[in-house]
């Protein structure tokens, strides 16, 4: 790794609002639009690191909350950092822990200084301030670090959304100071504001004034309809710098991702493809396939005979159905492999379509493949 390589973002093409480009980091470049497989506890569940690399993933996500509890950031640093620990030599983005703390509403207390919460593992008390969040992410060795924010689950009252947004802005300023200068690494701010356009705009403008290396849109995909999510992206996009990467946190389905790319988003993460794979659901160019369904019990066809992924191409649906119904680990592994392959293929297709000025046609033909298969299955 060459630490002299600066962190940067280059746009290679646009098609309408959709963009394709490249984020430069000392550990390698990230082609955008990019989907980041989620490696919550220093592993992308049911996958070998080499498999994840071979599928075309340029970056994975690590979870600050989970890693601070186990094995602990100081121990991680002594062991050489997260990259060495999990045998991943490419970039890693770490979230700040804010979303996980939100999900622990019964176990946490938020004030100006940060969040006090109890571990979901053993009930021990912990405190995470903006400064501590950045310190933990630094000990992990993260390439892209996220500010600590307060994420409000929608729907919520205007007063609660506004309070959380302003607190997140104050925390962003403290995170910037704590981050300091880290050559080759980046701190991203997180736009909050729930489903209130004026608050979203205020948040985006204030974060832009901090001149961070990138910007995320947070607090979406937390219970609101897809139309609301898209409307908030459209609201925020004009107020974010064109020359900085944009990251939509925790999204989503293939349809969510295509819609967000069309609205100018560059980066995504979601547990959906890995979690679905562990529960018998496959994502394919012909839509979703529930391998628990008895209709697959004697189906000798693969998930997708045209796929370059062996999991999709070389195993029958009947076999996958058997593995899933038998709760065999191999079934979880194969379907996770298939799903991550599909998501990476979706992103590669999007990048090529944007470069060639045919992104709208790509979205239309991709969605038609899903709908055509659903019709055939129903009829």
TrEMBL record:
**Keywords of this entry:** Glycosyltransferase, Queuosine biosynthesis, Transferase, tRNA processing
GO MF annotation: an example: glycosyltransferase activity
**Region RNA binding: start and end of each range?**
250-256, 274-278
Q: Which Gene3D superfamilies does the record associate with it?
A: Queuine tRNA-ribosyltransferase-like (3.20.20.105)
Q: Where is the active site?
A: 95 (proton acceptor), 269 (nucleophile)
Q: One Pfam family of this protein, by short name?
A: TGT
Instruction: Supply the EC number(s).
Output: 2.4.2.29
Cited HAMAP family: Q_tRNA_Tgt
Subunit: Homodimer. Within each dimer, one monomer is responsible for RNA recognition and catalysis, while the other monomer binds to the replacement base PreQ1.
What is the similarity comment for this entry?
Answer: Belongs to the queuine tRNA-ribosyltransferase family.
NCBIfam families in the record: Q_tRNA_tgt, tgt_general
Name of this protein: Queuine tRNA-ribosyltransferase
């Amino acid at each position: 790794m060459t630490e002299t390589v600066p962190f940067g973002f280059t746009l290679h093409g646009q098609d309408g609002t959709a963009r394709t480009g490249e984020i430069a980091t000392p550990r390698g470049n990230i082609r955008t639009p990019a989907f980041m497989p989620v490696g919550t506890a220093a592993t992308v569940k049911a996958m070998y690191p080499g498999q994840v690399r071979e599928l075309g993933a340029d970056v994975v996500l690590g979870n600050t909350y989970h890693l601070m509890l186990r094995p602990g950031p100081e121990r991680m640093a002594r062991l050489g950092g997260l990259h060495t620990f999990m045998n991943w030599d490419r970039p890693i983005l770490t979230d700040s822990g804010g979303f996980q703390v939100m999900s622990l509403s019964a176990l946490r207390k938020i004030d100006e200084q940060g969040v006090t919460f109890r571990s979901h593992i053993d009930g021990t008390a912990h405190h995470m301030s903006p400064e501590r969040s950045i310190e933990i992410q630094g000990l992990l060795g993260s390439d892209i670090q996220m500010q600590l924010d307060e994420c409000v689950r929608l729907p919520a009252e205007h007063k609660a959304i506004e309070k959380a947004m302003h607190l997140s802005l104050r925390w962003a300023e403290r995170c910037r100071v704590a981050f300091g200068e880290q050559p080759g690494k980046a701190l991203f701010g997180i736009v909050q504001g729930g489903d209130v356009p004026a608050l979203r705009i205020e948040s985006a403008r204030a974060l832009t004034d901090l001149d961070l290396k990138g910007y995320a849109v947070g607090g979406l995909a937390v219970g609101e309809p897809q139309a609301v999510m898209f409307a908030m992206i459209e609201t925020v996009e004009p107020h974010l710098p064109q020359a900085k990467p944009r990251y939509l946190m925790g999204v989503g389905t293939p349809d969510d991702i295509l819609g967000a790319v069309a609205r100018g988003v560059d980066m995504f993460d979601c547990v959906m493809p890995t979690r679905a794979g562990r529960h018998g659901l496959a994502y394919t160019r012909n839509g979703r396939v529930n391998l628990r369904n008895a209709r697959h019990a004697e189906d000798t066809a693969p998930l997708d005979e045209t796929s370059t992924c062996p999991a999709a191409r070389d195993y029958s649906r009947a076999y996958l159905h058997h593995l899933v119904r038998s709760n065999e680990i191999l079934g979880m592994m194969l379907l996770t492999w298939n799903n991550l392959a599909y998501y990476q293929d979706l992103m590669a297709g999007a990048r090529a379509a944007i470069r060639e000025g045919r992104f709208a046609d790509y979205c239309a033909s991709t969605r038609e493949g899903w709908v055509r298969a659903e019709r055939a299955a129903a009829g």
